[in-house]
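Supplementary material to the annual report.
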Amino acid sequence: MANLQEFIEGLASTDAVLKPRPLKIDSKTSLRAPAIFTRQVATIVGLKTSLGRFLPVSHEGHSNETYVDKVDLLGKMRAEFIGRKLKGQERRAHMALFRELAASQNGGDWRGFFKAKFGGECVIPDQLCVACWNCSLFGGLDADAQAATFTRIRYFDTFSIEDALDCVASADSEDMGIGNQVYEDLSRETDGGKGQARGRESYHLYEYVKAGTRFPFITIIESPTLLDVAGYIHAVRRADAHGYGKYNANHGKFATEFLAVATGYPRFSVLDMLEWAASGELSQHFAPDGVKFDGLGSHDPVALFGDEVDQLAERFTDAFRGYLAVLA
Ligand SMILES: [Zn+2]
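Predicted assembly:
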């Protein structure tokens, strides 16, 4: 617990980072999240394992084929999971969680809560309020108000530990259980959506990542508050259950093991983690005398592992209460 307390002391204050400030443009005043860099960062490191078929789909082929992007890296072809996809899904999961908490404070009405506290409902991606916790963390642009927030969360592309020869397979649309969705898309193109007997044109070939494929990841949060870090862990768990990638109603579910949460920047990369995994040493590096982090400013970095990360996640409800206090 001493370690956890020291970690929390190395984080930024909710009031400085998350309390919306009035911004006056012409005669109109709106709220926006502060643009601030406190010279503090937190790093979250983990390992995601696919629980079912996963279609990262950053790349659609010609005709009726969808591919998994593969990269030749450290002596293997690997399936690629780009940071932008991680960010998109985790931002939505974060917002779903945030709305639930807001609703619980306002008789089930999250919209009313958002309007009162942030001046708007905040809808991803086109009607961001640029004042709320989600906008502060993930960034956003409000074209009407001529206001923007920079993202404070940084993602990195990641790659499968397993060789694509072993972890990528293909199936057709029937076999993927997504034949109807594809048929509807195609029928709109071919007959203007009038609908016709299902034919050869509804056939679609998919590559997918198999269950049990592992992706190491690193996420960095700048000016991190306790709410940001504890909330991020919950948002990832929510995204895992909902699914990443295309057709995520049926596919793309993950389990995430958090290997470390630390103040400071990592002195290692996703590539190092791929090499450690190849030699069977990944878990050895994520222990108190393992991986190193670089602090900024006066605080020495503090790293949490194992149960300490769970204890950090348990601080989420208290941290949200602290946020409500600064919004009041
Ligand atoms: Zn917002």
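The chain has a mean pLDDT of 88.
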